[in-house]
Design a protein that fits this description.
Rossmann fold, binds adenosine-5'-diphosphate, disordered N terminus, alpha/beta
Length: 244
């Protein structure tokens, strides 16, 4: 497939070669992670095999301590696995040094956490825009506007986090996570701190991001309603996937 040349342009050839070798966005094989606490080994992942294609919206559920957050951290390159293989967009973190992993994360992965993690001294606008500046590609006003519009925060952009509700703060955090067009959005209990109404709003926005932007999302949740907005449900227990 790699050498096929269509319509006489290099671009067409490149497109064909990309179709020919479409990689899953996530691929893990016998992934393990064991934490060492003093002299005790704490196994958190015990052989996880997972393949996720671009455009999927996955929810990962399971009892506390079953390894959900560890899986998300390993997929996001925040924690090194103990064994097995993990590829994100075809890239293996094992071959990267810290600087390369950081760069990869900035360009390919967006994170949303339960606690929003907004910078308290910056307005919503600057909390979002800073992600574009850190990434290094500069400010993209069109993308910024599109994301702010989709997340319903255009009239809140000049407020600092303390003047926003929890639901609004989480929507700003999601805007920050997706403004650089990451290939993968990793969300760790995004509705964990929200009341029912705000949870529903945040979930419907994640749903829209997935549907309208084809944003790939992997979301950890305890909330059955949150799990039900995803297309695919992964259940974990004792560091393994028990149903998919
Ligand atoms: P979940 O997200 O499903 O609650 P975690 O991935 O947080 O599960 O934890 C899986 C297991 O790993 C648990 O036994 C937990 O106590 C342990 N664990 C998680 N993080 C650490 C850490 N940084 N150091 C030591 N043990 C950890």
């Amino acid at each position: 497939m790699g050498s096929i040349f269509l319509a006489g342009t290099e671009e067409a050839a490149r497109e064909v070669s990309q179709i020919g070798c479409m990689e899953p966005i996530i691929s893990t094989e016998n992934l393990t992670k064991t934490y060492r606490v003093g002299k005790v080994d704490v196994p958190a992942l015990r052989g996880v095999d997972l393949v996720v294609q671009e455009g999927e919206f996955l929810a990962v559920v399971g009892p506390s301590g079953c390894g959900k957050s560890t899986l998300l951290h390993v997929l996001g390159g925040l924690t090194r696995p103990s064994g097995g293989r993990v590829l994100v967009d075809g890239n293996d973190f094992r071959g990267m040094n810290d600087a390369q992993r950081t760069k990869f994360r900035r360009h390919k992965i967006g994170f949303v956490f339960q606690r929003y993690n907004l910078l308290p001294t910056l307005t919503a606008r600057h909390n979002i825009a800073i992600a574009q500046h850190i990434q290094g590609d500069g400010f993209n006003p069109h993308r910024f506007e599109t994301v702010a519009e989709m997340l319903g925060i255009k009239d809140k952009l000049d407020r600092k986090p303390y003047a926003l509700s929890g639901g609004e703060q989480q929507r700003v955090a999601i805007a920050r996570a997706v403004v650089c067009e990451p290939k993968l959005l990793l969300a760790d209990e995004p509705t964990g701190n929200l009341d029912t109404e705000n949870s529903q709003l945040v979930l419907s926005m994640l749903r829209n991001l997935n549907r309208d932007f084809r944003q790939t999302i992997l979301m950890i949740t305890h909330n059955p309603e949150a799990a039900s907005v995803a297309d695919r449900l992964i259940r974990m227990r004792d560091g393994q996937i028990v149903s998919d």
